[in-house]
């Protein structure tokens, strides 16, 4: 029998991707339910050739039985409705940041730490997009060499801020006087070193997510992480310049081979042929692309790399769907 899956926030940018990815990856679904708050309830969403009406999200519908409920409706909706669904015995995969750092909530990237899902039922947190792609890329290196310090700068697409930001960039490209509403500055032709709110230590919440989520997923609080998160005028696909200070001397040949063999990674690194990943090519794919691998000129333990992934797919929807796949595999293994 197929699965019963509900999507909360089904009309948003991530919710729509979740539907797309579930259908594309041929997850065996018998019963699909789509939910949203009253502004979007009643809308029609196409599932292959079938029209489906988006239902109103209520406490009652969350108490029904589902195999999986995927949440992509923001932190306050998750805070209120995810515990109701979990108390009713459901597995909830939540894309908001609300539960990520709670001690008993698994924060999962299936390629890296799916073992924490074994025997677990309840709320599972999907990491932030900028954290996910960085960890997919560095985990194989971390396992072999250990990491002392990470210095990372992100180049994040506007789709990370939802449909309104996509529209804002589209409109500003056509009309240079179109006002900025989503961001503090014009995004077209610009880059803005400010994602989410500033903390009193000068880092933004987006940057601190990269620190604390990385510690939790790799189960290693000793890694020193220094992020700068920047919004750029790209529609889909986040890029990251990552510098790693490893615990042992870098062997580029060995690291290339580790990345080539790693699950979920495409190594695209041939400078003599101008081969390196860019967000346009990552768009609508489920991989994390790595290029520009190079050993530090000064520090034999230093390594630079460039990491690109589709933020709405591997950074959100795909990772959530891969969590379903990982749990289904664990069930089959018994
Ligand atoms: C962004 N990280 O790109 C966010 C989305 N979760 O703004």
Automatic annotation (TrEMBL):
Active site: 129 (acyl-thioester intermediate), 238 (proton acceptor)
Chain positions recorded as substrate binding sites: 156, 231
Family annotation (NCBIfam families): asd_B, PRK14874.1
Family: Belongs to the aspartate-semialdehyde dehydrogenase family.
Physiological role: Catalyzes the NADPH-dependent formation of L-aspartate-semialdehyde (L-ASA) by the reductive dephosphorylation of L-aspartyl-4-phosphate.
Subunit-structure text: Homodimer.
PANTHER family reported for this sequence: ASPARTATE-SEMIALDEHYDE DEHYDROGENASE (PTHR46278:SF2), DEHYDROGENASE, PUTATIVE-RELATED (PTHR46278)
UniProt-recorded name of the protein: Aspartate-semialdehyde dehydrogenase
Lineage start: Bacteria, Bacillati, Bacillota, Tissierellia, Tissierellales
């Amino acid at each position: 029998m197929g699965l019963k899956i509900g999507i909360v926030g089904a009309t948003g940018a991530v919710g729509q991707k979740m539907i797309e990815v579930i259908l594309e990856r041929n997850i065996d679904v018998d019963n699909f339910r789509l939910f949203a708050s009253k502004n979007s309830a009643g809308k029609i969403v196409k599932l292959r050739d079938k029209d489906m009406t988006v239902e109103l999200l209520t406490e009652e519908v969350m108490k029904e039985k589902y195999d999986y409920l995927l949440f992509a409706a923001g932190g306050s909706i998750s805070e209120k409705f995810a515990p109701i669904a979990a108390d009713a015995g459901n597995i909830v995969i939540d894309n908001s940041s609300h539960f990520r750092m709670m001690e008993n909530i698994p924060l999962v990237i299936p390629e890296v730490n799916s073992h924490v899902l074994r025997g677990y039922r309840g709320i599972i947190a999907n990491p932030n997009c900028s954290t996910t792609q960085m960890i997919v890329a560095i985990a194989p290196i971390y396992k072999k060499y250990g990491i002392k310090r990470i210095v990372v700068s992100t180049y994040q697409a506007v789709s990370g801020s939802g449909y309104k930001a996509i529209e804002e960039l589209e409109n500003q490209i056509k009309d240079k006087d179109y006002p900025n509403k989503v961001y503090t500055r014009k995004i077209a032709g610009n880059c803005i070193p400010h994602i989410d709110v500033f903390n009193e230590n000068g880092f933004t919440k987006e940057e601190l997510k990269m620190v604390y989520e990385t510690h939790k997923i790799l189960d290693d609080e000793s890694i020193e992480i220094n992020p700068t998160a920047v919004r750029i005028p790209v529609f889909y696909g986040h890029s990251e310049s990552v510098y790693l200070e490893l615990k042992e001397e870098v062997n580029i040949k060995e690291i290339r081979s580790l990345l080539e063999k790693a699950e979920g990674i495409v190594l695209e690194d041939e400078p003599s042929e101008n081969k390196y990943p860019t967000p346009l090519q990552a768009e609508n794919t489920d991989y994390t692309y790595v290029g520009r691998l190079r050993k530090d000129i000064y520090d034999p333990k230093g390594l630079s790399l460039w990491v690109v992934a589709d933020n709405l797919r591997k950074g959100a929807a795909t990772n959530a769907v891969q969590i379903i796949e990982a749990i289904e595999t664990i069930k089959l293994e018994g």
